[in-house]
Specification:
With 453 residues, this protein is an alpha/beta fold. The chain folds into 3 domains: 143 residues, Rossmann fold (3-Layer(aba) Sandwich), CATH 3.40.50; 151 residues, Dihydrodipicolinate Reductase, domain 2; 80 residues, ACT domain (Alpha-Beta Plaits). 38% of the residues lie in helices and 23% in strands. It is built from 17 helices and 18 strands. Strands 7, 8, 9, 10, 11, 12, 14, 15, 16 and 18 form a 10-stranded mixed beta sheet that branches. A 6-stranded parallel beta sheet has the order 3-2-1-4-5-6, with helices on both faces. It has a two-stranded antiparallel sheet with strand order 13-17. α2 packs across α14, α7 runs parallel beside α12 and α9 packs across α10. It is elongated, with a radius of gyration of 25 Å. 46% of the residues are buried.
Length: 453
C-alpha cells in the first residue's frame, strides 16, 4: 500500500507543538525573484510538507515598487532598501537574487552578522567574495546556500555534498553555460558562423545585449570555481582559473570536428592531479559517442568522476525563471531543516581536506595534459602528407592526420589529432609550424576532452 509521506506523519505532528514558519526576506524581484515567489505560492503545501514547516515571505526589496506590488500582492512588506531586508528583525533567511558583486556583498555580510541564513543565486558574487562570505557564515553559525548559482535546475551542489559524500572526487567537467551551448549548437546544426549564431541567441533572449560574460567564458568560470570548491574542499580560486571563450571559434572547425567524430562544447573542467588541480574553461572537442556531446541548445550537463561511484552525469535546464526558482526554494527547504546541524557543517567546503588542498596549487596552462586537435591550411592537397611528416619528425604523439572534406571557400586543410601531451610543449610546436612555408594561413588548435572513466 502506498503511504503519502506527508499524510503518514500527520498523527505524529498533531501531538507535537506547531513549528514556527521559516520567515524569508528577498532582495530582488526580477526574473528569478518573481519565479521564486510564484513557485512558493503555487506549491506551498508540498514545500511545507517536505521542509517540515511553512516557508513564509515577509519582506521584498525592489527598485520598482509598483511593479513588485503587482507580483507579491498584499500582506508582504515592500521596500527599496536591500539593507532593510538584510537586517529585518522578523527574517530568518535572506534570499539574494539581485545580482552584482559590490552592494550584494555588503547585503549578505550584513545579514550574516545579524545571524541570518543566506540563499543566493549569485555565482559572480561567490566566485569573487565567497571566501570572505563563507568565513563570516562559519563565524556566526549560519548557512550560505547557493544551488541556483551553478547549474540552475541541476542539483549538482547537493550531489557533491550529499549523494557523493562517500567518494574521493577525481574530476568534475561539464557544459555550465546555456548561452554558449545554444550558440555552438546553432553553428553545428545550421552551419552558422559565430556572429550569426550569437545574433540569433540575442533575438531569442538566450544572450544579453552585452553577452561578454557568457561568450568569454567568465560565467562558466564563476560556476566552475564553486564546483571545484565543493568537489575538492579547496578555497575559491576564481582568479587562478584559465578562461577561454568561444569568440575566436570558426564554423570551419565545428564542421571539421564533426568529420573527425567529435562535437565542440564550451567545457568547465576541474581535475585533481598529483601536484595540483586543473581549473579551466575552454572550447574543446568531445567524442560524439559520449553523452556530453548530445547536451544541446541551452541545456547544461555535468559529469563527475569519483572513486566509488564511478562516472555520474547530471542534465537539466541552465536558465529560466522557475527553473532557477526551483533551486532557490530547494535551498530554503534545506535551511528549514537545519535545526540541530553543527555550525561547522553549514559551510562544508571550507572544512574537509582544507590543509591538504590548500597546499596544492592550481596548475598553470602549460602543465595541463590533454589530446589536441589541429587544423592546418596548406597550399596544395599533397601537403597534407607533409604536415603528417613534419609532426612525426618532431616526435609528437600524433594519432591521425587527414584531409578535411572539401567545402566552398575552405581551401585545403590538414586535420590532426594527438594523444595526450602537455599544453606547453604543444604550444611550442604550433608556433614553429605556423611559420612553415607549406602553411597557407592561421592554424587552429583546440583541446580534446575524452570524459570517460
Amino acid at each position: 500500500m502506498y503511504l503519502d509521506p506527508v499524510q503518514s506523519f500527520e498523527p505524529l505532528r498533531s501531538r507535537c507543538a506547531p513549528t514556527r514558519p521559516l520567515r524569508v526576506g528577498m532582495i530582488g524581484i526580477g526574473t528569478v525573484g518573481a519565479g521564486t515567489f510564484r513557485v512558493l505560492a503555487r506549491n506551498q503545501a508540498d514545500i511545507a510538507g517536505r521542509a517540515g514547516r511553512a516557508i513564509e515571505m515577509v519582506i521584498v526589496s525592489a527598485r520598482n515598487l509598483s511593479r513588485a506590488a503587482g507580483i507579491v500582492g498584499e500582506g508582504i512588506e515592500l521596500t527599496d532598501d536591500p539593507l532593510r531586508v538584510a537586517t529585518h528583525p522578523d527574517v530568518d533567511v535572506v534570499v539574494e537574487v539581485a545580482g552584482g558583486t559590490g552592494p550584494a556583498r555588503d547585503w549578505l555580510l550584513a545579514a550574516i552578522a545579524q545571524g541570518k541564513h543566506v540563499v543566493t543565486a549569485n555565482k559572480a558574487l561567490l566566485a569573487v567574495h565567497g571566501t570572505e562570505i563563507f568565513a563570516a557564515a562559519r563565524q556566526h553559525g549560519v548557512a550560505v546556500a547557493y544551488e541556483a548559482a551553478v547549474a540552475v535546475s541541476i542539483p549538482i551542489i547537493k550531489a557533491l555534498r550529499e549523494g557523493l559524500a562517500a567518494n574521493r572526487i577525481e574530476w568534475v567537467a561539464g557544459i555550465i553555460n546555456g548561452t554558449t551551448n545554444f550558440i555552438l549548437s546553432k553553428m553545428r546544426d545550421e552551419g552558422l558562423d559565430f556572429g550569426a549564431a550569437l545574433a540569433q541567441a540575442q533575438a531569442l533572449g538566450y544572450a544579453e545585449s552585452d553577452p561578454s560574460f557568457d561568450i568569454e567564458g567568465i560565467d562558466a568560470a564563476h560556476k566552475l570555481t564553486l564546483l571545484a570548491a565543493n568537489a575538492f574542499g579547496m578555497p575559491l580560486r576564481f582568479d587562478d582559473a584559465q578562461v577561454e571563450g568561444i569568440t575566436a571559434l570558426q564554423g570551419m572547425d565545428v564542421a571539421c570536428a564533426e568529420q573527425l567524430g567529435f562535437r565542440i562544447k564550451l567545457l568547465g573542467v576541474a581535475r585533481r592531479r598529483e601536484h595540483g588541480v586543473e581549473l579551466r574553461v575552454q572550447p574543446a572537442l568531445v567524442p560524439a559517442t559520449q553523452l556530453m556531446a548530445h547536451v544541446d541548445g541551452s541545456m547544461n550537463g555535468i559529469m563527475v568522476k569519483s572513486d566509488a561511484a564511478g562516472v555520474t552525469m547530471y542534465y537539466g535546464a541552465g536558465a529560466g525563471s522557475e527553473e532557477t526558482a526551483s533551486a532557490v526554494i530547494a535551498d530554503l527547504v534545506d535551511v528549514a531543516r537545519l535545526d540541530g546541524t553543527p555550525a561547522a557543517q553549514r559551510v562544508p567546503h571550507l572544512g574537509f581536506h582544507a590543509n591538504a588542498m590548500n597546499a596544492l596549487p592550481v596548475l598553470p596552462r602549460a602543465a595541463v595534459c590533454t589530446p589536441h586537435y589541429l587544423r592546418v591550411p596548406v597550399h596544395a592537397a599533397g601537403q597534407v602528407e607533409e604536415v603528417a611528416a613534419w609532426l612525426g619528425r618532431r616526435d609528437l604523439p600524433v594519432r591521425q592526420v587527414v584531409r578535411a572534406s572539401d567545402r566552398p571557400g575552405m581551401g585545403v586543410q590538414a586535420l590532426a589529432l594527438t594523444e595526450p601531451m602537455a599544453q606547453g610543449a604543444w604550444d611550442q610546436a604550433v608556433r614553429v609550424l605556423q611559420v612553415h612555408p607549406m602553411v597557407a594561413g592561421s592554424l587552429a588548435t583546440l583541446r580534446v576532452e575524452e570524459l570517460a572513466g
